[in-house]
Amino acid sequence: MSETWLALLVAFPAIMSLVVAASGRWPNLRETVSIGTAIALFAGVASFIGPVTGGERPSLTLLEVMPGIGLTFTLEPLGLLFALVASGLWSLTTLYAAGYMRGNEEHAQTRFFVCFALAISAAIGIAFSGNLLTLFIFYEMLTLSTYPLVTHHGDTESRNGGRVYLGILLTTSIGFFLPAIIITYLLTGSITFDDAGLFGEAGLGVLGAGALYVLFLYGTGKAALMPFHRWLPAAMVAPTPVSALLHAVAVVKAGVFIVLKLTVYVFGVDYLAETGASQFMMWVAAFTVLGASLIAMTRDNLKARLAYSTVSQLSYIVLGATMASSLGILGGGMHIAMHAFAKITLFFCAGAIYTATHRKNVSDLDGLGFAMPITFSAFFIASVSLVGIPPMGGIWSKWYLMEGAADAGHSAIIVVLAISSLLNIVYLLEIPTRAFFHNPRPDTPRHWQEAPWACVIPLSITAAGCIVWFLYPLPFLTLLAPWAPQ
Fold first, then answer.
1. Is the residue at 130 inside a domain?
2. Could you tell me the CA-to-CA distances from 375 to 16, 111, 113 in Å, in that order?
3. What dihedral angle (degrees, nearest 10) is formed by the CA atoms of 308, 233, 105, 155?
4. DSSP character at residue 151
5. Is the pTM of the predicted complex or chain greater than 0.85?
6. What angle do CA 40, 352, 438 make, to 5 degrees?
7. Tell me: the pLDDT tens digits for 357-397?
8. What is the distance between the alpha carbons of residues 94 and 42, in angstroms, rounded to a whole number?
9. 228 to 21, 173, 483: CA distances (angstroms)
10. Could you tell me if residue 226 is inside a domain?
């Protein structure tokens, strides 16, 4: 397959954003172009499944700025997984956004869809990055392209949330990630991702490797490790489709994907296992898993509760990386997909509830399940998947994460994952329980009152995906075969 397709797929959504902007006066055309672009992008990314699973690693360098350093795209299994998740769910998010934005009569809808397309272009650039320079460029592009989405409403709350969002993500990337890249080049003479890692011959001691790993992981602020997690709850001032984009499709998944990619292709799993350089960040991730879950239990605002749930769930993937075990990488990679389907469903449901009833708080949902049975059934399915209970796909990623912890001798991490699952039950299943089993409030609708079909159809599809991936996890296992047990 032609390597030129790598660059074309990265540029395609950005180019089509111009068409979206030009069709702004015709909303139906604008949204048709947006959805069509998303479907075409997914088809283009999916065309690489066969070659990559067959062992090919297509690569293309567009611009060389220094000897051996340029704008390079390379596709490998983790990158393909992230690109498939991002492009596939973008199609459903775009359809959902059309229903949500119209249903709530939001302003600046054309700008919204243009920024959506630019954000996905940056996410695909991250997925296809062949070296740290390319990764850093598209990482920053993703931050900047999503800022107008976070501040979409333009009020004081949105501007304050946007400042926190932009401030934390730019500070961590410029203050930690960029220096880490420079140090890596000075120590190894390379910033190109390598299957064997870059530090095997660098003579870097355990403390030095550990410190550099800390710089990289905290520099990847989009992974939302505590204490650099506040940007994520702050971004909840955005419209719900943006929350879905942030939490499931692009931004946070870009963060944890980068953590996996750095672990595998910069440090090397074997190197981290031998030196123990990742253990400090493993305990930071474990603390984030439990700490964010406890905070989620205290939040009455539905989107805020889901935001802290995301902070916790992201650190499952970071745990998979920092355990320095192939099974941990497998579990972390699978959780990128399983969490994406479950969490996007939860945010779709939150937006549907707001669109139909304008209710934002968990305490206001009593008895609402009979007016919105599809929405709350989907919420239940996605919640059970995040808990990790069959027959939902979330069981597979948690299974391999626990296997990875056992394989690496980290029995305490198994306990952390088990406690976290119990906390998930408390703060997630309370919501459908209230909706179906509590007495309705006096102002609760007594008749069918689902959100528009453009909102209900996507959340139904993603909820069904949670079940499908339990029954058919093989596509992910095939893609992540380099880290699967033999």
1. no
2. 32, 28, 24
3. 160
4. T
5. yes
6. 145
7. 989 999 999 999 999 999 999 999 999 999 999 999 999 99
8. 13
9. 34, 11, 29
10. no
